[in-house]
Amino acid sequence: MSLFRTVASNVLRQNKAFLPAVSVRHSSSSTNLKDVLADVIPEKQKEVVELRKQYGDKVVGEVTLNMIYGGMRGIKGLATETSVLDPDEGIRFRGYSIPECQDILPKGDGGKGKQPLPEALFWLLLTGKVPTQAQADAVTKEWNDRAALPNHVTTMLNNFPAILHPMAQFSAAITALSSESKFAKAYSEGAKKTAYWEHVYEDSMDMIAKLPTVAALIYRNLYREGTSVGTIDPAKDWSWNFTSMLGFENSDFTELMRMYLSIHSDHEGGNVSAHTTHLVGSALSDPYLSFAAGMNGLAGPLHGLANQEVLVWLTKVQEDFGGEVSDEKLKDWVWNTLKSGQVVPGYGHAVLRKTDPRYQCQREFALEKLPNDPMFKLVSQLYKIVPDVLLQQGKAKNPWPNVDAHSGVLLQYYGMKEMNYYTVLFGVSRALGCLSSLVWDRAFGLPIERPKSFDTPSFLKLVKK
């Protein structure tokens, strides 16, 4: 059988996109995530060893100068187990689409809710298997047990000046949590390389457990006059405790946060936050330092700050028109934006070539919970207008909305109006994907990442040859 047919056969067996119905692969009955992962890792390690042994010298892509000078777009150069972004289907977490995850993953409120638990998604990202409700609830309990912050981190957060951006505070707190790193301690004591993943797992579980408290302290200090975040309720899930510590008691907002924290968790390995975490981790920096580096990337306006830019633009549209606006006038506004050399925030994506499924599930939530909200109606109106304008302009490879076109509107509706803070929410969510990938990086024993670089004269000489 040819290499192509062998690979195609494996893809057909493993990728749910080719199956007529969702095939749910549940984990074993154990509710201990680490034990289940310990069973899965040797199988995957063997699979990768065999893959490299059989096909290690095969070419899987080509690199052009345009790719190199154009942000490495399209270069196949990373192995990321947790998710794959298909240009036409959108993100798939371990082979499952977002609608499939919403359907098959255990829900909040003891299974009675509509949105999947981030705990359940984390289990799926780590093991590749769909957890039971009991397994997802066991992760909730573990995170609740690990949530306490060391005093020095709390003191530091409480003493930051109000002028320090929420993301700078978030990154600094994560860096300071490095004092708790079990990986760093084990490495200094001579831990075996084969056990690295276990120590990274422990740090990841600890960090994810603590991030909502860190994020809530930042929010309360900046926007709620330093009022207390309260304590973790051991009977409640991760998202519920997070929204409660933020000061929101609306059950719909908690459901929104379960969805938000799930859909923003991972977007394969090449985005800035995921790649940076992977890169810094490849130097065997501990998970806290690695993830803090990823969060510094997320803080950039071309990554995590994008939803804030969308909201600023939408607010300006509303202010300029002073209420509802006709489709024709809105179309003229969009054209004027483009002709002035600006982009339409929230539209287009480096990889996707369709409406982002993360946008779509937020839209469905809004249609159910806030159909008459003026800002949502504006977003819906733009959804009808912008793609046609971008297609007519002819410059956009993807004229469809991405996740950022919607998320800020939902947060505003429920009273979280502090746009500077939105990227912190994104960061709490992104921990699920970045850290589950980091566990697998160490399970595979991936080496330090060090691609070869040339200067422009060297490239010129190379292509002339």
From TrEMBL:
Keywords: Transferase, Tricarboxylic acid cycle
Catalytic activity as recorded in UniProt: oxaloacetate + acetyl-CoA + H2O = citrate + CoA + H(+)
InterPro entries, per the entry: Citrate_synth-like_lrg_a-sub (IPR016142), Citrate_synth-like_sm_a-sub (IPR016143), Citrate_synthase (IPR002020), Citrate_synthase_AS (IPR019810), Citrate_synthase_euk (IPR010109), Citrate_synthase_sf (IPR036969)
Pathway: Carbohydrate metabolism; tricarboxylic acid cycle; isocitrate from oxaloacetate: step 1/2
Catalytic machinery residues: 303, 349, 404
GO BP terms in the entry: carbohydrate metabolic process; citrate metabolic process; tricarboxylic acid cycle
PROSITE patterns tied to this protein: CITRATE_SYNTHASE (PS00480)
GO molecular function terms noted in the UniProt entry: citrate synthase activity
Gene Ontology cellular-component terms listed: mitochondrial matrix
Primary localization: mitochondrion
Subcellular location: Mitochondrion matrix
Annotated Gene3D superfamilies: Citrate Synthase, domain 1 (1.10.580.10), Cytochrome P450-Terp, domain 2 (1.10.230.10)
A Pfam family the protein falls into: Citrate_synt
Quaternary structure annotation from Swiss-Prot or TrEMBL: Homodimer.
Similarity-based family: Belongs to the citrate synthase family.
UniProt-recorded name of the protein: Citrate synthase
Protein species of origin: Mizuhopecten yessoensis (Japanese scallop)
